[in-house]
Amino acid sequence: MPSKPFIDRNDYEQRIDVLKQCLGTSPEDAEAIRTYLSEEQVAGNVENFVGAVPVPLGLCGPIDIRGDHARGWFVVPMATLEGTLVASYSRGAKVISESGGCEVSVYGDDFLRAAMLTTRSLSDAARLVSWCETRESQLRELATRGSNHLRAVETFCDRSGPSVLLTVRFTTGDAMGSNMTSKAIAHVAEYVTAESGLVRNHVVPYPEDKKSLPARRKGKRVIARAVLRRDVVEPMTRASLERISGYIADYKNFLALHGAHALNIHAANGIAAMFQAFGQDMAYLGECSQAVVDCRPTETGELDVSITIPNLILGSVGGGTGLPAFQAMLSMVDCKGDGKARKLAEIMGAVALAGEIGCAAAQCAHEFVAAHEALGRNRPT
Question: At the top level of its lineage, which domain of life is listed (predicted)?
Fold first, then answer.
């Protein structure tokens, strides 16, 4: 580009002209990102809008889920660029379903937001903690004022030097909750700064999102479990239950030895593909991949396999879920709108377990590389 371009955030056609200039001699490339979405539809989702980048969509399943909220057979959309992924997850889903289905439950649900409050001394910081503790009910009420989704469960404080980190633990209903909790903690921080007389300055929110912080886990806590039958697994996958069990134990040992918090094969793969299909915030994968796989033989010769996802951050309302394609995908699994977030979490947990089983079986049968060679056919040129 011969000169510095100007991007007008209020003029769509001007931005399209800039795009075409950036593409230079390949104006046909502009057609590749043409979309039915209008600028009005994506307001609040993206700025300087010029189009959309399509991601291939595949169907995983069917999978038999027996959860508290998700019950029955589900075909689950997955959007990905990784060949073999949907096939592997679908095979895991078939193994689970033919073994009797997937038990799944959401056992926790909260969201953390914090304000960083700087005082003038250690003694002022200690006094500020006491001030906040004695006014917890007032701070909780202030944090949820004006919201239909938020409920403040508790407040608590951490300290570093003369600074105090004031945290509110929320539940966010069917919304993922990031923006609404940021707004809420801002109100709390402004009140504490104005009323305590102890705060020199404050910053909100504490930048804990979208990275692995084991001490600050949030979101839905999900466990999915299946009992795998030998007469299903071995003919279908050419891997024995003993070999799968030994492999899971071995890789977890090495991952722990190397300091990993995520003791799984590739949970982030499936969660990413479902996040993409269901209009979730992809950047939260930095937190949501911290899953732990477990297995143990049963007294009747089967293999009990589970995955625990301690922080699955998602919503069935708000954010990208309002765009037409994502509305359609959520409707496909009956997870659109209010009252559906926990059902969506259970479906994702069950599919994540299917992916762990499918991949483990392929590796134990020495078919992992061959499968990627056969199905992952995009080659660099």
Answer: Bacteria
| Three-state secondary structure call for residue 284 | helix
pTM score, whole prediction = 0.94
Q: Which domains does the chain have, with CATH numbers?
A: 57-108+221-376 (3.90.770.10), 110-203 (3.30.70.420)
Count CA atoms closer than 13 A to 52's CA, side-chain side: 13
CB burial class (10 A; 0-12, 13-18, 19+) of residue 201? exposed
Helix, strand, coil content of the chain in percent (nearest 5): 45, 25, 35
| Terminal Cα distance for the chain, rounded | 26
Contact predicate 132/124, CB 8 Å: no
Please tell me the distance from the alpha carbon of residue 223 to that of residue 107, in angstroms, as a whole number: 8
Number of other residues whose CB lies within 10 A of the CB of residue 58: 17
Question: Running DSSP on this structure, what letter comes out for residue 210?
Answer: T
Which residues participate in catalysis according to the annotation?
82, 210, 281, 372
Compute the distance between CA of residue 32 and CA of residue 171 in angstroms, rounded to an integer. 41
pLDDT mean over 358-366: 95
Number of helices (H) and strands (E) in the chain: give both, helices first: 14, 9
Decide: residue 151, CB within 10 A, 0-12 exposed, 13-18 middle, 19+ buried: middle
Helix or strand or coil: residue 317? strand
Cβ-contact 143, 170 below 8 angstroms:
yes
* One-character DSSP codes across 104-157: EEEEEEEEEEEEEEE-SSHHHHHHHHHHHHHTHHHHHHHHHTT-SS-EEEEEEE
Condensed to tens digits (0 to 9), the pLDDT of residues 318-332 reads 999 999 999 999 999
| Three-state secondary structure call for residue 67 | strand
d(CA 363, CA 360) in angstroms, rounded, equals 5
Mean pLDDT for the stretch of residues 195-224: 95
DSSP-derived secondary structure letter, 26: -
**Beta pairing class for 102-118 and 57-67:** parallel
Residue type (1 letter), 212: S
Comparing CA positions, the residue from 183, 106, 107, 191 lying closest to residue 149 is: 183
